[in-house]
Design goal:
Low-confidence stretches of chain A: 1-8
Distance between the termini of chain A: 24 Å
Structural class of chain B: alpha/beta
Number of domains of chain A: 1
Number of helices of chain B: 17
Shape of chain B: globular
CATH topology of chain A: ABC transporter involved in vitamin B12 uptake, BtuC
Number of strands of chain B: 20
Strand content of chain A: under 5%
Number of domains of chain B: 2
Number of helices of chain A: 15
CATH superfamily of the largest domain in chain B: P-loop containing nucleotide triphosphate hydrolases
CATH class of the largest domain in chain B: Alpha Beta
Mean pLDDT of chain A: 90
Helix content of chain B: 25-40%
Strand order of the largest sheet of chain B: 6-7-8-3-9-10
Low-confidence stretches of chain B: none
Distance between the termini of chain B: 46 Å
Oligomer: heterodimer
Largest sheet of chain B: 6 strands, mixed
CATH architecture of the largest domain in chain B: 3-Layer(aba) Sandwich
Amino acid sequence: MKKLSLKGRDWKSILSQNKPVIVLLILIVAMSIMNDRFLTWSNALTVLRQTSINAVIATGLTFAILIGGIDLSVGSVLAICGAVSAKMVASGMNIFLVILLTLMLGLGMGMVNGLFISKGRLQPFIATLGTMTLLRGFTLVYTQGKPISIFGSETSAVYSKIGTGYFLGIPIPVYIMLFVFVIAYYILRHMKIGRYTYALGSNEEATMYSGIKTDNVKIFVYGISGFLSALAGIIVTSRLGSAQPTAGSGYELDAIAAVVIGGTSMAGGIGTIFGTAIGALIIGILNNALNLLQVSSYYQGVAKGIVILIAVLLDRKQRTSR
Amino acid sequence: MDEKIVSMKNIVKEFSGVRVLDNVDFNIYKGKIMALVGENGAGKSTLMKILTGVYLKTSGDIYLEGKEVNFTTTKESQDMGVAIIHQELNLVQDLSISENIFLGREPVGKSGKIKWKQLYDESKQWLDKLGLNESPKELVKNLSVGKQQLIEIAKALSLNAKVIIMDEPTGALTISETEKLFEVVNELRSQGHSIVYISHRLNEIFQICDYVTVLRDGTLVGEKTIDELDEDKIIEMMVGRKLSEQYPRVNTILGHTVLEVKNLSNKFVKDISFELKEGEILGVAGLVGAGRTEMARSIYGVYPLDKGEILMKGKPVVIKSPKDAIKEGIAYVSEDRKSNGIVLGLNIVENVTLASLDQYVGKIGKINKSEEEKSTDSYVKSMSIKAAGTKQLLKFLSGGNQQKVALAKNLNTNPKILILDEPTRGVDVGAKKEIYELINKYKESGMSILMISSEIPEILGISDRVMVMHEGMVTGTLDIKNADQEKIMSLAVGKEVS
């Protein structure tokens, strides 16, 4: 019965419920016409690789925004985790240990955000603004303001493959991104904690009354955001061959844009990983397109802002009319 | 016959083809109070919204003092002397009394500066007229709900209202505030104002109204003078059947004591003790603010206890959160469905299993969706929940169906004790009866039920015992055989009953 009704839906109604997909298609078609270097295999791989970092961060942020929160600290977590991992790599530590410790560090920092927000009852915006500033400062102290190179040990070569390597002709970060999407989708759709994420974002009080420890859900959600920021930190550091003290500055904005363009409500409770994936692709293609078209960097911000507003407005109109 | 000030004739209103008012006639008499009663959804508010220009009528005529009128905005109706006071008051909490009374029409000088002295003086006159001795500079948020209601009346009077419509004015008032309101309303009547009084509380209607108009399903059932009626007759007109059929009572043999509450105290309640047996319905009566909801939520682990003990089957249990309560077999169906009973953004399945998701997950936390679906289907069938499907979001269901989902969510935790807090609030009479029948079914299956209700007939109708609360304390417990409306009311206001 249910499957029948799904089949019965025509492609028009599917598209009208996925406005971001339309924006994405329009963008791709328009760019293919305007620039013949756009629709090539190598450029597609470049876009995907560039998108991967924002996409990984945005996936974590989707959880935070789904519970009606926000995580501004993602860029700073990325930077400090990147720096710590670079130092560990340079010291010759085992590659798996480096990755594990870096991810745990990110997870821990995210969970601290979650603790401030749940037990400390801070507004998510304020709490993560605080940790964003704090961790950025801490990164500068830790790196003494200078890049930390990942080279100088046996581990370096393997580590640098994470961001620069290919498997079957496709960049490794693209695999990481897809893997993160699949796991996040599975958690949100099929796991208990995913159900609680939506419930909490839609009605916190009713969720608490249903016998759910909402504090634990919040700590988990911010933990995921920190964990994925650390993962993005590893990709960035590996790709550049060094940890920059200012790495990840402003990344929270592109990530929020991707989540919101993907149709996730800032009020919480509504949104999907599929949407965020589309949102991240839109941002990625836009960045790529503006470069290919040699738009001056002054105008790039203007163009990006306009596209973000159009995408969100389209989505908003559709929702109020329903 | 009294003189008509407003006469609405053959009013029809359709919303996208659905007729919600069908040829309704409605009169308001000069210097009289007209009660407008009917179930939820009978069309009372729609009719009043047409009179005050919020909605446009589909057809029909409205006459005000003999002249045909057709208000298209509330401003127009206000200017012609028709004012409405909504159930949810329209006051700006952070402004003063006088700023609220004159909001949007403040007396100003040439430069646009507000003439504060004139504002305060005029406000003071209106306050005096209503017997309020608050300073006109007092902020509205510092006033009780009862006084805020009077400020709304002052505002209406300052607009030269000839007709004042009051929608459920006593819903949130205490007894003394209600009495004060009635004094004011009586005074307004003697000054020649005409009033429409919308209320579910029939006893109030007999206290102050002169006429009664009853609506049912968008049609006029009748207009009568108050002397022609009694409560049973009004209810019969409202629901179209006799009152005795409304409360289906079942008698079960009570089992062992399941729940014992001993000397429960915290910042909301004092020294609450009671017992609940298998298959028993204990009704909890009291006025708004008596601490009934707070008591229930304290047992359910929402509010911490300062003192006291909770025993399940004779063994003391520690309940520090709803999670603990559910584990001990206590379920709580909230009075405030939308804020803490259900999740509007989730669908029926997700709501039904929200409090019992552990039953459906495997080792790694994966939800077994077909099992979820199965459980939900059985509730949808047994409770006759009306929806397009189990994947429908809760926000698209009617109040009665939302309440059934809230009930299903709690039942799915397999409770031994079911706490129902105002289980039929905002639910229309037909669905009410269905809910009573469900409650009886659980009672027969041996569940113990604590039912908080502000509707005394409902408590008398289905409980085995009645516990009455006043100011956070239990003032008495009555066996149903000795309980009646009067005894409950006197206990509710804190009087001793012999």
